[in-house]
Amino acid sequence: MSTAQDRARATRKSAGALRRTQLLTAAAECFDEFGYAAVTVEMIADRAQTSRPTFYAYFKSKDEVFLALVESVSRELDVTQSLTGLEDATPREILAATTRAYLDALFSLGGIVSLIDVTASVDAGVAAIWTTAADRRIRAYARYLNDLPAGTIDPAFEPERLVRVLGDALHHGAKRWANGSDAERERFIVDLIAATERLLGL
């Protein structure tokens, strides 16, 4: 195959990835604004400034684009818990950085997280993706805590159970303050970090 053909294929692949991302972004905006039931494929295509045939080139249905959105949001939340760039940080610094990153992501996602929560309660496919991702983050954080040198922390109770409790507080608290002012959100973040430090015995 010629170099020109290689470049053309790479260009098509890149353009396809961009179009898919645009459709996912448009879908997120539509679901957030109108709720799942009211959204149609036409609305998503219009918001993405494309056509129904183009939508169907990437997704089979509204259900499929919603599942893809759940996966995308899950990956976005996973990234907030990455310790990349924090290798030399103290546990206290890591706690603050990952907590803030997670909450900032939840705030930026708006009502889509609440919609996913509600949909997961009635849709097994959505629940499987959503709960698996949450469990993955919880296990990773609990593993980090368990691997700390003895005496670094003095948790109030068993780390994985503690992380689940804290995860619920972050998740549902963020939804409560999603429409709050910057100052209210910052107060929530600071208070939650302080509470977590106490529960972990830092």
Automatic annotation (TrEMBL):
Xref: SUPFAM superfamilies: Homeodomain-like
Keywords: DNA-binding
Domain HTH tetR-type: 17-77
Record keyword Oxidoreductase present: no
Lineage of the species this protein comes from: Bacteria, Bacillati, Actinomycetota, Actinomycetes, Mycobacteriales
Known DNA-binding region: 40-59
Name of this protein: Helix-turn-helix domain-containing protein
Alphabetized Pfam families for the sequence: TetR_N
